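Milestone M4 deliverable, item 7.
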Amino acid sequence: MRRRALPFVLLLFVLASLTAETPRPPHEIAPAKAETATFTFNRTTYTLRVEPEYAAGTYARSDWPHWASLPGTCFTVRDKVLAEESWVPVVTVPASGGRCRVVEGLWRDPYTGREFTNADDVDVDHVVPLAEAWESGGHRWDRERRRAYANELGHQNHLIVIHDRENQSAKGKGDPAEYLPPNYAFICDYLEAWVRVKARWDLSVDPLEVEAIRQAMFEFMCE
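Output delivered:
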């Protein structure tokens, strides 16, 4: 009886092997779907890629040419923003190379709620800092795209006039997990600007950043 059963069992094993699903070659395996995060402000939804911050290279501000001269004017991008965001007509003085420099105006820093009249007391802030842009995908950009980002004038709240100490000592290159404006009334606008800039330039967000934005949106009832 045992000698007759052995061929039958062997036959079943062979049939099972033949009908089993053949593993797909590695090149045929579909890539995992990229993780995304969505945020909605004022009925507009933004979808951003979620990725760890890029840490393999070294950020250099010199790789992001900023404050370009504007053809047909004596302004650089910085002075143009100062002139446009001043609540009174600005005072300018001649600068080298046929340029002019804004020295006085009236600026209301939305981050702190403070007012300033001396241009030396304010910075023109990239809401999403250049270093943050580098870590969020800008390391892949060529020099011209970095230049375009650093001098963006056509997008609301890409560049904002704020107190220089707030920019240099408090915000730095921090994302919303590391910095939020002390003026609570501006936080929702700040978060919306942050997300909108990242979506416009196809920049990613890291997991801690996502959590911080969502937490702040909930806490300050951003809609």
